Amino acid sequence: MPKLKTNKSAKKRIRISKRGKGKHFKAGRGHLLMLKRPKRKRQLGRAAFISEGEMVSINKMLPYGA
Questions:
Q1: Which residues, in sequence order, are bridge partners of residue 24?
Q2: Which is the most buried residue in 7, 36, 41, 45, by most CB within 10 A?
C-alpha cells in the first residue's frame, strides 16, 4: 500500500498539539484593520482550537501529524 500524502495547505495552517488537538490562527487579521475595533483585533490575534468534529477530517489531511 502506498504512503499517504499530506495536504500541504492544511500543514501550513494547522498545528497539532501534544494532546492531539488542532490549533489554528483566525482569518481577518491581514488588512483593513482601521475598520475593526480593538477588541476584535485582539481576539483575531489569538490562536483557536479546532472542534472535535472537524478534527476527523483534519486527521485525514494530516495523516502523520505533520
A1: 14, 48
A2: 7
How far, rounded to the nearest angstrom, does the alpha carbon of residue 18 sit from its chain's CA centroid?
A: 15
Count how many residues are written for the chain: 66
Contact 48, 26 (CB under 8 A): yes
Question: Which parts of the chain are beta strand (E)?
Answer: 14-16, 22-25, 47-49
Report the alpha-carbon distance of residue 18 to residue 65 in Å, rounded: 10
User: Could you read off the pLDDT of 20-65 as tens digits, one per residue?
Assistant: 899 999 999 999 999 999 999 999 999 999 999 999 999 999 998 8
Domain architecture of the chain: domains with CATH: 8-61 (4.10.410.60)
Q: What's residue 6's pLDDT? A: 95
